[in-house]
Design goal:
2 helices, Jelly Rolls, four-stranded antiparallel β-sheet, 33% strand, binds N-(carboxycarbonyl)-S-(3-nitrobenzyl)-L-cysteine, binds fe (iii) ion, single chain
Length: 203
């Protein structure tokens, strides 16, 4: 049963459980063509998560800023196409949350090893904030921080487990969010890591 955790934010616990193997196989295929790497922030820090993308656009960060790019800066080639199992779970989760026509053109793949985290931020690189964002958690559990529209709003802590899917739409599309430091552990399907898939309409 979908759990509303904010205005326009819906948590679908276990929604991806039946397709977890297919999703992880697709992540491996994408990573073989476009290996996950630690990006540098415009401020000159290396992110603790390892990142790659698939679909028409890929999210990148370097000294010049955060943006979507049509080519992987490591290979100079287009990003791998979005595998169908990935697209299907994103479209199904969005539909379940009331977004009937979600057509993602990018999937950001974030790999967290123990010690990795993501500080509070907003997702603002997309052109149309009325489009939802779908986030799929695989592997080790983590604590998600779900804040408000101001950085100073105290975030709620939401534990996320393997197979959980979140859909962000409406006002919470621009909420500050992040994840706490990943704790060490071993998951039967992902080993010592958490993988997050974030589906967006970039353009
Ligand atoms: C993650 N990734 O768990 C998260 C999942 C990122 C990122 O934040 O930018 O790579 S996406 C969670 C999200 C997206 C858009 C809005 C909100 C949360 N929100 O309103 O809380 O690796
Ligand atoms: Fe984000």
């Amino acid at each position: 049963t979908p759990l509303p955790i904010g205005d326009g934010a819906l948590l679908l616990r276990g929604f991806a459980l039946g397709v977890d193997d297919a999703l992880l196989e697709a992540v491996d295929a994408v990573s073989a063509e476009a290996p996950a790497r630690r990006l540098c922030t415009p401020g000159g820090h290396r992110m603790s998560v390892e990142t790659t993308s698939c679909g028409r656009w890929g999210w990148v960060s370097d000294a010049a800023g955060y943006r979507y790019a049509e080519c992987d800066p490591v290979s100079g080639r287009a990003w791998p196409a979005m595998p169908e199992p990935l697209r299907r779970i994103a479209v199904a989760a969005a539909a379940r949350a009331g977004h009937a026509h979600f057509d993602p053109d990018t999937c950001l793949i974030n790999r967290y090893a123990p010690g990795a985290r993501m500080g509070l931020h907003q997702d603002r690189n997309e052109h149309d904030f009325s489009q939802p964002i779908v986030s799929v958690s695989l592997g080790l559990p983590i604590v998600f921080q779900f804040g408000g529209l101001q950085r100073s709003d105290r975030p709620q802590r939401v534990p996320l487990a393997h197979g959980d899917v979140l859909v962000w739409g409406g006002p919470t599309r621009l909420a500050f969010h992040g994840v706490l430091t990943l704790k060490a552990g071993i998951h039967p399907l992902t080993g010592a890591s958490r993988i997050n898939l974030t589906f967006r309409r970039a353009r």
